[in-house]
Amino acid sequence: MAETATVEELKKAVDDLVKDETNNSSEIPGLNYISVRDNYIQINHKEQLEALEEEAREKLNIQLQEYYDNIMKNKFETAIYIIKMNFNSIVVGLKMIAEMTADAISSVLIPSVISTPPSTPNPAYTALENKQKKNNMLNLLKNIATMFLTLLQTMIEIAFPCPKFILDMLETLKTTKKAVDTVPA
To answer: Is residue 25 pLDDT above 90, yes or no?
Structure first.
């Protein structure tokens, strides 16, 4: 019989992977288990909590925290991991696509051969190379858009408020797509 990993071993492996992949990335404020749980409770039980007196509200809030700690902790932690991984990949991808776009535009302006005659640049090769670069950039943009979709959908699932800078990054993605579209192919 094959040996299998325990749930705790899997959690540690995922935690290590996320730490590894997001080591140097920006942080999303409030993206931790306690904040996510408490925000989820406030949003999904707002009317119940507001209808109670202070002491009863505190008691219900503690009961809800214990309930979510037992029932939803794995879901919240997984969502946090998904958000962190996608956010980090988006940041890296946007930096990469900006560099690729600048390089592609520069390569159109710089001749592929600089020498004395009879050497001349091969325009067919240059056009083919630019088409390949543009296709690679468009593919990367689609991947980044998919990461955004996953990130935003996961935020919705756990009722996590999306910081404005993430929406600004989405606008950057749209602007970058327009810039890539201008690259000759």
So the answer is: no
